[in-house]
Write a structure and sequence with these properties.
Oligomer: heterodimer
Strand content of chain B: 15-25%
Radius of gyration of chain B: 15 Å
Largest sheet of chain B: 5 strands, mixed
Mean pLDDT of chain A: 86
Radius of gyration of chain A: 22 Å
Number of strands of chain B: 5
Number of helices of chain A: 16
Low-confidence stretches of chain A: 458-471
Shape of chain B: globular
Number of helices of chain B: 5
Largest interface: A-B, 56 and 46 residues
Distance between the termini of chain A: 38 Å
Chain lengths: 487, 165
Amino acid sequence: MTYSLESAEHPERLRRVAIDPVSRVEGHGKVTILLDEHNKVHQVRLHIVEFRGFEKFIQGRPYWEVPVMVQRLCGICPVSHHLAASKALDQVVGAKRLTPAAEKLRRLMHYGQMLQSHALHFFHLCSPDLLFGFDSDVSRRNIVGVAAEHPEIARRGVLLRKFGQEVIRLTAGKRVHGTGAVPGGMNKSLTPAERDELLGEIYQIVAWSRDAVHLIQKVHSQNPALYNSFATVRSNFMSLVGNNGQLDFYHGSLRARDENGKPIFDGVDYQDYARHIEEEVKPWSYMKFPYLKLLGKEDGWYKVGPLARVQNCDQISTPFAEHERKEFIDYAGGTPMHAPLAYHWTRMIEMLHAAEVIKELLHDDDLLGSDLMVEGKRQHEGIGVIEAPRGTLLHHYRIDDDDLVTMANLIVSTTHNNQAMNEAVRQVARRYLNGHEVTEGLLNHVEVAIRAFDPCLSCATHALGKMPLSVELRDAEGRFLHALNRQ
Amino acid sequence: MKAPFLIVATGNPSRGDDALGPLLLARIADWLAGSPLASRFELIEDFQLQIEHALDLAGRQRVLFIDAGMRTPGPYRFFEIQPTGDMAHTTHALSPEAVLAVCGRIGNEAPPPAFVLCLRGESFVLGEPLSTTASHSLAAAFAFLVRVFEKTEVADWRAASYNSN
């Protein structure tokens, strides 16, 4: 693990290429590349140029507003923020253990979120690169292009996402800005009719999710040299695992492994996260760089998300996903797979697991229970951690005697992956850009590496006309040399 | 039975003028509540347009997308759109034109006639209220829409888009 290509010795002597914004990711990030006169790469950085001021925004608000407010962080995984905040505030109201109905309703909501987010990312954002090639005609590298050439794949992508959104609507009350989870439990139960509505579709959803795993498995096996090496960076992994070491998106303890799969820590109560994770600030990005304290800044960075979770767990509780996990582990040859493009494969295994868990929950009578709230001894601090679609998501709050939030700290999934994404784009720049003329197709290679992590860089601001992509090449004096534009 | 007219408003209510879409939708909902037109409209609010909104479009006579715009001429623009696959610069969100295109590709019917009402905003800062400019845009757009909604023919909407630009 190195920081090579993070900082050039004499940036003023180099010319600069910028990908601004990075496309088909959520939010606004940019990549800058410094090249010398022979197009040799000297510096590559992924900058996050949006400032997420939510920690300040929340301060002074009543704690019970927080689970609803924090959903506005993101238009893609609002439920993850909703539930992470609710888990943190469960502790504030003294709810040490939720009722079975409340916990299973929250799990249903969360697994619906995982399913819809993974479907959206795979079918909408990444399938064009995977089906058409990284440097194929840019005009068809989108979901409309996929719909034109592979209508059934596109249709399934839409319907999988739609089903996940329906799970969210029925458990949270609305597709967005839901109010289902509250500190101490849930304020909405599921009716038998709503459950039956979901049951009518879930078997098809499981079948389509299995097909999606097989589709990405086939893509990998057709070109293993590319998929196993592209943008590969070795690192540590971190995720929550359940009590028996199983994959669990809703609750568990923290586990970290090194690049060879050797344990760094295990069974860590996430209430102690601050003892294990530190965040470094760098002047060129708004996003912090977390690392494991035990290993230090240089060696302690890690990956989170599907690739980490599927390899960090000991098993998956549902049969089809467990079968696919074993297939993936066998494919990797018994050692950890670090290739970013393997995120897609593991993401589809997780989507299948989410569909299977939803099916199990829909057959669980506890789900229709009406005992939804628990209270206990009031606390002034709460920490909630959840496995969001993109990885480990941490919400930490302090509350005063007037029930107002005095401190909020959020470490979101994409932040955990910050260093890994930077290292991945450096690998791509070193391999594909070094010594070559910059073209749109080569720049898309950089974006393919970033997209594999499914980063979410935004707070869901998206006004029409705000996201053009232009790449400009300027010399060291800032003189314009060359431009590429995507309209 | 689906309502013949669908209105989809997008925006993040916590981000200044990005709230224009949801706020205008709320005004429309209040207005429709006391109107005989109520049963003809379905209203959907979301952060962003996503692929599953293509399914919401199916079976409609007409669709209206409402959103805030950064550089749109003020106070608003009202225009008809056509399906297009031109969406390479987008994030997870789709443009209204791309939603139409996905609708046309995955369904068995052509997408319905669709219009966009884009309201001019200026500031999209977290936690900020509407700017003065956006408040004017909101009032003007609502008054305009009330007149448009009283006309049911698509030709009338096209005429309104022609006259508003």
